Structure formats: structure tokens, C-alpha cells
Amino acid sequence: MTHVSRRKWTTPLLFLLLLVIILWWLLRGCGNKTNMQMPVKDTVTTGQMENDAIANVSTPARASIKVMLPDGRELDAYKGGIEDQLVSFLKDPASRPGKDVWFDFDNLNFETGSATITPESQQQVNNLAAILNAFPSTRIKIGGYTDKQGDEAVNLKLSKDRAEAVHAALQNAGVKAGQLQGAEGYGSRFAKAAADAPDEERVKDRRISVSVREK
Q1: pTM for this one?
Q2: For residues 79 and 65, is the Cβ–Cβ distance under 8 A?
């Protein structure tokens, strides 16, 4: 094959290759612009933060209500919350107090790993104090509970300290000493969720409860 013949087929081949490169570059540039303009969607994984977020979104909003006391005072509370349940129980002549009658605080929190009640929890403490003042013959006991995670001796002490903190807070809120029949910590003795269960299950075991012993 002569030098001239080789040039006849080599030149078109080089031109075609150059055209392919230009087209590839142009298409790549358009693709990048399209990706930049598309909205970015968050990817939900199975990590703890994502699970917590999903649980919060799926939980229905709680209905706010007014709980009327015999002395005419109205309490801001939630439907089905401790104020609602406790007042209904105390007003019901057929209800019977006892060691097995417990009501859980539903808006009471502590600083992590401590028995310090958070400031935003004071409203429910004050509400309970108002209920006890409106029903002066009522006698209660405070119980503290933890989940199964961690050392049981530490959990037992923490539950006791938290129960006693609520007991003291009720006294400071004006509850008569005779209406408070002590505070006891039970640790994880009555916890239902396993130590390695998701937090949204274990949180049900971390609570402070009120037992109505007399009404």
C-alpha cells in the first residue's frame, strides 16, 4: 500500500475519532448539569437516628385538653395523660386504690444519667400537686423504673434517686407530707424489653409512676 493510499483512509478515521471524543465530552457536560439541577433526596437508613425520626413522624399528635378539678381549677394536660387518668380515677366512686394501681408520668424527664428533673417537666409536677391538693384524702407512693441496659446496681440506685427527686419536687410544690407515702426504686425488675431491644421499646421501661394507696 502506498503512502498516499494510507492517508486516504487514515484521515477520515482520525476525523471520526475526534468527532466521537467531542460528542462524548458534550454529553458528559449535559449529564452533569442535569444532576446538579435535580433535587437531592435524603436516604433513610436503619441507623438509630433515622429510626427515632421515623418513630416521631409516625406518632400521632397528642390532643390537648383541660382537666377540671373539684376545686374549680383547670389543668392543661393531654388526653390520656397522667392528669386525665388520675382525676378520672379519683372521681369515680367505683374505683379502688391499692398496691397494684399505678399511673405513669408521661411528660416528666431527667437530665441524662441523673436524677435532675428538667425545667420543662415542672408543669406536670405542679399539675400532680394541684390534683393531690384538690383530693386531700388521696395518698400516693412514687415508683422509679429503668430499662435493662447497664449495671443493675447502678440502675437500681438511679431509679431510687429519681423517685425520691419527684417525691421532693411534689413536697416543694405544696403537697402535704401525709399524702406522700414514700418513694422506691425498682431498677429494671419490671422491665419488659430486652437490653438489646431498640430504644423505642426500652423507653417504655424508663418511667416514674404514681401508686394510689388511698383515695
Answers
A1: 0.71
A2: yes
